[in-house]
Design brief:
Blueprint lengths: L1 E2 L2 E5 L5 H13 L9 H11 L2 E8 L5 E10 L7 E4 L9 E2 L2 H17 L4 E4 L10 E13 L4 H7 L2 H11 L4 E6 L2 H17 L7 H11 L3 E8 L2 E11 L2 E9 L3 H4 L1 H15 L4 E8 L3 H8 L4 E9 L13 H11 L3 H12 L4
Helix pairs in contact: 2-7, 5-9
């Protein structure tokens, strides 16, 4: 598709040269995120079966001036959508030329029409253009600089929450480790699946975590807090351009008593500092949620996030867990035995990307 001096094409993600060109653009762009990278597209596609696309805006000179990563998320329960990016908290159009924004948006609209895909969801990025709905206020993001040392990091935590963290630091039964091998993935999934079940949410497929970890290589790892031999808190973290980005994390029911989640994120800040990172990006939370309040009590200030959607019919998927239609289902899900929740959850959660 050609718009003025901009040509939009779909990159072949199986081609190493095209992947490298796209990755170089993302890594050089100040607003690039892990969720714009080919690694995210491919990891999610392999982990969930949802097809990945990378639209590229190319200038007359042959240089990439914009990218739009997409997953075609299909679900019998929730409907179809093109999502940038699937299973992510960010994405959207990434461009160095304003003309690329409208060109990529038009190409994406054409993809949806040609494929009879109900809607498009962009989780971040600039306003795509006319006909797109802006969604503000539903989510907030949290980020702040990493302190210079452990003591300064402790003092950066507000006093009330710092007292809870000190209790975890004084607990000699808790130990922390990081890694990327099969046993770390197994422990992470055991903890994470219990955590989301307790929140009333179906867990993602185990393969999703494995494939993302493989796709990102040394730019991702897992940190686990053990009480003795038992994993009690765990988080899979991405590292991008100086930012520590804990993404899939949680704790078992005992985590609150042990304050192991507090310890987990405090130790992750130190781990990130050791890797040369400068910013701790706590990701997004629902505005007004308990999770948002918890992050704020840890010393992070909320920043409103903006998303965009498009649909030829004006419709949009409803995958908001706070939606009234889901409340009874969430209450029932919390009561499921964990083995049953882990068996059927991934089939449902695949459609929530």
């Amino acid at each position: 598709m050609r718009t003025g001096e901009i040509f939009v094409t779909a990159l072949d993600l199986a081609d190493p040269a095209q992947r490298a060109a796209a990755d170089a653009f993302v890594m050089a762009h100040p607003e690039g995120t892990p969720f714009h990278r080919p690694a995210w597209l491919q990891g999610v596609a392999r982990g969930t079966g949802h097809r990945a696309h990378m639209l590229s805006a190319v200038a007359h000179s042959g240089q990439i001036v914009g990218l739009l990563p997409l997953h075609h998320v299909k679900s019998a329960l929730f409907g179809d959508a093109l999502v940038s990016s699937g299973f992510a908290v960010d994405g959207g159009i990434l461009a160095s030329d304003p003309a690329a924004v409208s060109a990529l948006a038009a190409a994406c609209e054409g993809m949806a029409r040609d494929g009879s895909i109900a809607s498009i969801e962009l989780r971040g990025g600039p306003v795509p253009g006319e006909g797109w709905a802006l969604h503000e206020g539903s989510h907030v993001g949290f980020a702040r600089p990493i302190a210079t040392d452990d003591e300064a990091e402790l003092l950066a935590v507000p006093r009330k929450h710092r007292a809870e963290l000190r209790k975890a630091l004084a607990n000699d039964a808790l130990r922390v480790e990081t890694g990327r091998d099969a046993r770390h993935l197994k422990a992470h999934y055991r903890v994470y699946s219990e955590s989301v079940r307790n929140l009333g949410t179906p867990v993602f497929p185990a393969r999703l975590f494995r494939e993302v970890l493989v796709a990102f290589g040394e730019d991702a790892d897992i940190l686990i807090v053990h009480e003795g031999a038992r994993p009690v808190s765990a988080v899979l973290t991405l590292y991008h351009q100086g930012r520590v980005m804990p993404f899939w994390g949680g704790g078992i029911a005992d985590a609150r008593r042990l304050r192991s989640n507090e310890l987990m994120y405090y130790r992750l800040m130190a781990h990130g500092r050791g890797r040369g990172m400068s910013v701790f990006d706590f990701g997004r939370s629902k505005a007004g949620s308990g999770q948002a309040a918890w992050k704020k009590s840890f010393g992070f200030d909320p920043v409103p996030l903006s998303y965009h959607s498009w649909s030829a019919s004006g419709g949009r998927r409803d995958i908001n867990p706070n939606s009234p239609q889901y409340q009874r289902r969430i209450d029932l899900w919390k009561k499921l035995p964990l083995p049953i929740a882990n068996l059927i959850g991934p089939f449902i959660a695949r459609g929530l990307g």
